[in-house]
């Protein structure tokens, strides 16, 4: 185990970078990453956030999840902003994102950026609201901007 918080973040970023490269080599990174995030999130929601309550509003649910995940130490959600409603949620994530280093490395290499926070939010909504949300990274930068849109075609 790394001795410092920075060492732990570096280890996390190397691990996620390798996981994404592995998912790409399997041919469908979105599906592989969705399953990995889903399994981890189900365990975390069952053990780490049992008191987290979802509402019918996707934006409010994303805000509540981010606050609970921030309080638990999973992420730093202090610079995350949500706008929207139950069908479309716009998200801005600033520099405090623990995955920024990994996303920056992928962006600088000219590789697609697969936003782990987008996967987490979309899967959390699917698990808690029993609804499928498609995510799209609109802009990688400062801040990152993404959109979660409720799918009208697919049921979980």
* Alpha plus pi helix count: 5
| Estimated radius of gyration | 15 Å
The N- to C-terminal Cα distance equals 37 Å
Please give the share of residues in helix. Answer: 40-55%
Summed over residues and divided by their number, the pLDDT gives a mean of: 83
Q: Which second-level CATH architecture applies? A: 2-Layer Sandwich
Q: What structural category arises from helix and sheet content?
A: alpha+beta
Largest sheet: 4 strands, antiparallel
Q: Total strand count, please?
A: 4
Shape: globular
Q: What's the number of domains? A: 1
Q: Strand portion, in percent?
A: 15-25%
Low-confidence regions? none
- Assigned CATH class: Alpha Beta
CATH topology: Muramoyl-pentapeptide Carboxypeptidase, domain 2
* Topology order in helix (H) and strand (E) letters: HHHEEHHEE
Q: Report strand order across the widest sheet.
A: 1-2-4-3
């Amino acid at each position: 185990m790394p001795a410092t918080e920075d060492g732990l973040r570096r280890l996390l970023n190397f691990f996620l970078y390798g996981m994404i490269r592995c998912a790409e080599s399997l041919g469908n990174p979105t599906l592989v990453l969705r399953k990995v995030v889903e399994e981890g999130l189900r365990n975390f929601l069952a053990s780490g956030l049992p008191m987290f309550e979802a509402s019918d509003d996707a934006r409010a649910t994303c805000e509540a999840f981010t606050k609970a995940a921030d309080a638990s130490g999973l992420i730093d959600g202090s610079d995350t902003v949500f706008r929207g409603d139950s069908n479309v949620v716009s998200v801005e994530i600033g520099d405090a994102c623990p995955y920024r280093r990994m996303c920056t490395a992928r962006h600088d290499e000219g590789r697609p950026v697969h936003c782990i926070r987008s996967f987490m939010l979309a899967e959390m909504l699917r698990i808690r609201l029993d609804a499928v949300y498609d995510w799209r990274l609109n802009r990688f930068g400062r801040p990152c901007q993404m959109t979660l849109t409720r799918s009208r075609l697919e049921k979980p």
